[in-house]
Amino acid sequence: MSFTKGTEISNLFDELKLEGDNFFDLEYKILSVFPNKVSSMTLKEFVEKLHRTTIAREGKMNSEWLELDLSTVLAKMNEIESLRMEKRVIAEEISSTESQIKTVFEDEFLEIEEVEKLVKILKFEYKSFLKRLFSTEYKEIFQKNKRLTKELKLNYEGLISNVEKLATIHSKSRIMTEQTKKLESYEQRLSKILNVSQNLSDEELTQLKKGISWGESIKNICYENNIWLISLTTIQNIVEGVNVVDWTKVVELADKKEKSDGKITELLAKFSNYFENVPLNMQEVLKYIQELEFNTKEEFFDYKRIKEELLKEYRLDDFIEKVEGIEIQAKNVELVFLKRFILLVLENIPEYNSITNLSTKAIMDKVDNFKKEDKSTFDLARIRIFNALVDRLPNTNENVKTTGGEIEILKKELTKKARLLPTRKLIENLPTLLPRLKPCIMMSPLTVSTYFSSNSDWEFDLVIFDEASQVRPEFAVAAISRGKQVIVAGDSKQMPPTSFFNSSSENEEDDEEDIQDLESILDELSVKIPETYLNWHYRSKDESLITFSNKKFYNDRLFTFPTDNLDVHSNVRFTHVENGVWESKYGNTIEAEKVTQLIYDFAVNYPEKSLGVVAFGKSQTEIIEDKVLELREQHKELESFFDENKSEPFFIKNLENVQGDERDIIILSVGYGKDPQGKLRMNFGPLIQSGGERRLNVAVSRSRETMHVVSSLRGIDLSVDKSNNENLVVFRDFLEFAEKGVGALIGYNLLEEDHGTEFDSDFEENVYDYLTQRGYKVHTQVGASGYRIDMAVIHPNIPGRYVLAIECDGAAYHSSRTARDRDRLRQEILESKGWSFYRIWSTTWIHDNQNEKIRLIDTIEKAIQEYSESGGETLKDRETLKEKIKFVPVDMAVDNVLPFYSEGVYVFKDDIPALSDIIMLVANKYVGYEMHDLMRHINKKVFGKERLTQGYKDIYEKAFLYLQKKKRIELKGEVIIAVY
């Protein structure tokens, strides 16, 4: 570096330091008035605007209100004004209608109750003149109301007209009452927020509204981007009429600052000629000058010399420009160069180009084609098996030598009316024919011994035991001896064979049962033959249902599928029965009544769901059965729910006999609690005996959608500190889990705020960073077990819901052994559980980054929109209609309110609204059923017609269309999902 150049740099440094001191001094003085930086031009405009607004003051405004969200307060005041106006209008309408009625009737007529019921009776029961002519009830109603007229004159039409007017008054009075409550609530809230009277007159409200509107204008000027431009105290003084700032001096400071900024800009431009990579920020420049020693200056000019050589000799213009344009450590420059060099070489290789040119659409087309072909293999397998079985079937005309006369034996038995061969004898006589007719036979182990004699030649290629943990070895021997191969399937963590059914007696107390666990064929063979674990759990639609078992019994070995609901406890519910009393022989009656109430609620509100009840003791099972019988006697209309011929009928079982069952909803009744003397005995029957943990595991893993625990005990009630009984601890932990969620389990903490950021690859991290920079809230590695979703996007307005699962072809993708797992099953299962799914391919993310980002954002926005428009329903399945459907308790005598017309539905062909009103009388009963079920009911009960003809259907469908247009009923396809 020349001496002259060094001198120029030193002089420049001195000028920058001097002007920097002046710059920061002016900035400090301005910031003493303005917490946020404002340019001189903005400042002048600000002062003028603030002055104009200040002198335009009107209404009442308190400076303390500036800290409130004034726009929200104004909105509340507008709502109050609107509600007051609506009340006045309704009051005038009621008064007008009353005046019309009083021209005909005395005031006593206005006091009639149940007027809506009277309207229905008059309009539907006595629409026919003949019915009115011969009905004693109608005459009584007519004469009673006629006596209330002023001139004692009345006809049918006049009566209906005035009764309907009275019904209108009742309806509007109810609306007015609701409006009054709502108005009082709003006024009370406004009074609390502003500390003003709750009973403001209209004029006072108007003045208050003007003042707050003016205050909002002041705030809009002085408050930007969540920052006050001047101190809040200063603004409050302005609102109170006290001016504490000399705005003339502030403007003078701004002018000086503007001149200083011009000088600084000129000096920084000179500085950039010598130091290109230093940010042109005054603070950064002064810091750089302070740290720069003479030897560092020498290094800088050495850098410039080397750079010029690289540009001239090696033509690395593009590379150097890009490296200098990004923040990169010096030690990484060589690595960046090597990477770029290698990529340039690869781009000249044809095979590499074919990979990089793959688009997302091309990849997904290949994946979709694979899915289609993969699914077709299942259909082909079914066809092959079917054809193979058909080929095995014997020809009834086959030679007797081929079957040994077995066909004739079977034909003969089929023609018999009596004296049939015993099953065992028949099987012995068909050793060749039966395997051809029934190559797969399902029997219990004991049935095998019963129907297959020990000296027969029966032998199976394969014997499979299901639920082997409940099969005693001595019962299994006969089946095993007849197989060439054996598969034993079972769960050692679930129920073993027990002496329960052998040792129970009526007088034995429930909490003192002596139930012995016996050895099973699963236990015996597990030490002799190879084991294979089935680790994927599919039953539970919400993984919270299996979390307790996975943690406590399976050591987190089970792979479950994440739910799209952040509330990991949403499908496990807990009801504490505080006053429940446990009597060993008689169970817990109070808790049983609560369980029965829940059963009723589910039967009415979720008739399409299957339901089961599991009690922790025999006596509790019996008392619940008694209570349910009483319920069924009281509510005959619910018999269809308890129909035992359904595919999954309602059941009430205890711990010992529920294994193998599953239902959509399971109610667990713990039963145990304090005795009548208020003492809690720490004896919970087989639950805390050896094998108790197996019983609990079976009970808590029966539900597919919801588990509702009803208990007179809470986990905190059980003292386990001095107990060595591990099953008691597990029982306590279960109660804690049911009440508080997975956070109660040691090692689990899945609250939303605890979601960290974990990545399997840099690729995933890059996608995550992009989404968070775009403002989306994203969780990584979503799930409670070994299987995790790479990323999930949270709905911006519904914090508890994921709207999209994003999976990358990273480590988790490649860890799947087969393409079926990677590209079909994983996505299908997630979508069946409510997820929307999106796959990002690393090749397209790298080589077509901009378009891939656009596709990703479009997919997220579409998912958010669809979720919002569906009201929270998933696109794949209607999981629940609880919030959407208005449920009404069903009256067992509901049909008594229906009229009867012997003429048939054609009498309503030209009066569809009247037919619609009849349908609405019982429509609540058919929520969740198809509309044709309701048509048949009306057709039979109202018109006495068993057959629903096409002509009848056409009229009914017009009525349903009318109800839909009036928004009184809502259909999804053919199913009634809501009645309003």
From TrEMBL:
Domain DNA2/NAM7 helicase-like C-terminal: 528-712
Database matches in PANTHER family: DNA2/NAM7 HELICASE FAMILY, SUPERFAMILY I DNA HELICASES
UniProt keyword annotations, A-Z: ATP-binding, Coiled coil, Helicase, Hydrolase, Nucleotide-binding
Coiled-coil regions listed: 176-203
GO molecular function: helicase activity; hydrolase activity
Record InterPro entries: DNA2/NAM7-like, DNA2/NAM7-like_C, DNA2/NAM7_AAA_11, P-loop_NTPase, Restrct_endonuc-II-like, Restrct_endonuc-II-like_dom, SF1_C_Upf1
Protein name according to UniProt: Superfamily I DNA and/or RNA helicase
CDD domains associated with the record: SF1_C_Upf1 (cd18808)
Statement: the UniProt record of this protein carries the keyword Methyltransferase: no
Keyword flag Cytoplasm: no
DNA2/NAM7 helicase helicase domain boundaries: 455-499
Pfam families documented for this protein: AAA_11, AAA_12, MTES_1575
Organism expressing this protein natively: Pilibacter termitis
Source taxonomy: Bacteria, Bacillati, Bacillota, Bacilli, Lactobacillales
UniProt xrefs under SUPFAM superfamilies: P-loop containing nucleoside triphosphate hydrolases (SSF52540), Restriction endonuclease-like (SSF52980)
Residue ranges annotated for the Restriction endonuclease type II-like domain, each copy included: 763-860
